[in-house]
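Late entry, evening session. Most of the bench is empty. Finally got around to the prediction I had been postponing all week. Sequence below, unchanged from the version circulated by S.P.
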Amino acid sequence: MVVMKMRIKKCGGRAMKIAKLESFSTPDVGFIKITTLCGATGIGQMSTYHADITAQIFHRQVAPWVLGRELDLDNLYTEALDIAALVHEREHKYPGSYVRRAMAGLDTALWDLAGKQAGLPVARLIGGTTGQLRAYASSMRRDITPVDEAARLCDLRDRYGFDAFKFRIGAECGRGEDEWPGRSEDIMKTVSHALGDDVVRMVDANSCWGAARAIEIGHMLVDNGITHYEEPCPYWEPDATRAVTAALAPLDIAVTGGEQDCDLRHWHDMMNRHVVDVLQPDVMYMGGLTPTLHLAKIAAEQGYVVTPHAANLSLVTMCTMHLLLAINNAGPYLEYAIEGADYYPWTQDLFENDPFAVHDGKVTITEEPGWGVTVNPAFFDNAAYAVSELD
């Protein structure tokens, strides 16, 4: 990863100082708008899910520490790392997820601001390129039969050219139980047979099994040509996952994980003890693009591939697109959530101009500045509003 040092245009000689931070939130998703003293703006997103609660945390525990700060956009990576460190120091009694979910809104807004001031997409600001990026079709559903899942994945293959797919096995945090008896064994066979050997097949167990059963399942997956085994054991039990990774090491399957993790202590442990083979940070859970870039750099130094988690078509996917075209240890594809209005109604028309359009199994990062997306104005009409600003 090479973060470019840019000469960002200044606001007519006026300070690039944070003057106002606005939030627009629903229970599902929330955006942050940053405005500088000279009127320059950027849009970012807090992490999804209970975003209305995250907005309260943003204004209580993030905004007070950054309002009035003069920004060094020419060196934003270093600047944003320092901002994150400052907030976490001031809020050191709250080391968990929510402050980071709120920080994601500020961090991604800063990168959008910098891109718009430079007239460049974020991918180029962080040393990457634009253009096409391979995606894998990621199913979120467990309430679907193996036959129906196979049918819809084949349809996506034929209509959109996807050549990699992920589907769900086990029950989410299932305490060792399947979604219904025999579903996992059935779906791995049915979907693999239907899709054929010309596509990559992956599964996500979402913290379902203990180590012994997860290892048994892993051998079945290998027998069915599945090469990506995500979160086989409860993520809060890394020793169990490590046992699975070690047991399956001689086989052609990668154990993956990390989507829930946001604390560098956990990531260091994961890498130092080889808990998983592939790391899967979520840009929004991590606290934004900057800490994810920082983690990717550490992971590269230790020889780990990074294939981020991006499970819905909100800004998390767009941020991940820019990230993957900039880091040198990126996995081979982007996670692309395939669910529609029946599963993710709040993502429908969230942005203008369909920025996630798929052609030949690929998405496209354009040369539009910042994140290159425009939030649908209708979203703001129905969102709760709050503001923190300089006196």
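Two things to note before I forget:
The chain has a mean pLDDT of 96.
Residues 171 and 179 are 5 Å apart (CA to CA).
Will write this up properly tomorrow.
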